[in-house]
């Protein structure tokens, strides 16, 4: 598992949005080696969030599912459990064609992504 991605859905210790120490250790990197990935992760999250937003606007649930899936993977790599879970829920909803529930889940994903991006921008 990456970072604090846990089967039981446990939160990152100390209420942190992500756990760089655990995530770097999980993929076998030092914190110094892991740090450049944080900038790339922030760029990817912003790109995918924009793509999800566009998919929502276009009622393109396939695009929503694809881009939520990528966000889920990036969040998991960082050990950002709340963002990973939000992306997973929206991905599953979009794959199931549930256009009625998608806006609620997208709002949660936007919130969780904003939290994560704030922390990544500080790193």
Task: Give an account of the 3D structure.
This protein is mainly alpha-helical and 123 residues long. The protein has one domain: Four Helix Bundle (Hemerythrin (Met), subunit A) (Up-down Bundle), CATH 1.20.120. It contains five helices and no strands. Helix 4 packs antiparallel against helix 5. The chain is elongated. It starts with 19 loop residues before the first helix and ends with a helix. 41% of the residues are buried. The N terminus is likely disordered. Keywords: Phosphoprotein. It comes from Pseudodesulfovibrio hydrargyri. InterPro entries: HPT_dom_sf, Sig_transdc_His_kin_Hpt_dom. This is Hpt domain protein. One of its GO terms (molecular function) is protein kinase activity.
Tag the structure with descriptive keywords.
123 residues, mainly alpha, Four Helix Bundle (Hemerythrin (Met), subunit A), 5 helices, 72% helix, elongated, disordered N terminus, HPT_dom_sf, Hpt domain protein
């Amino acid at each position: 598992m990456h970072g604090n991605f846990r089967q039981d859905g446990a939160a990152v210790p100390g209420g942190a949005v992500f756990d760089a120490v655990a995530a770097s250790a999980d993929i076998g990197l030092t914190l110094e080696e892991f740090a450049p990935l944080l900038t790339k992760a922030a760029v990817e999250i912003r790109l995918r969030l924009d793509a999800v937003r566009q998919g929502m606007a276009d009622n393109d649930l396939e695009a929503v599912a694809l881009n939520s899936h990528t966000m889920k993977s990036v969040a998991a790599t960082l050990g950002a459990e709340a963002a990973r879970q939000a992306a997973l829920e929206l991905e599953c909803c979009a794959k199931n064609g549930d256009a009625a529930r998608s806006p609620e889940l997208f709002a949660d994903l936007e919130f969780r992504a904003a939290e994560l991006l704030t922390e990544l921008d500080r790193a």
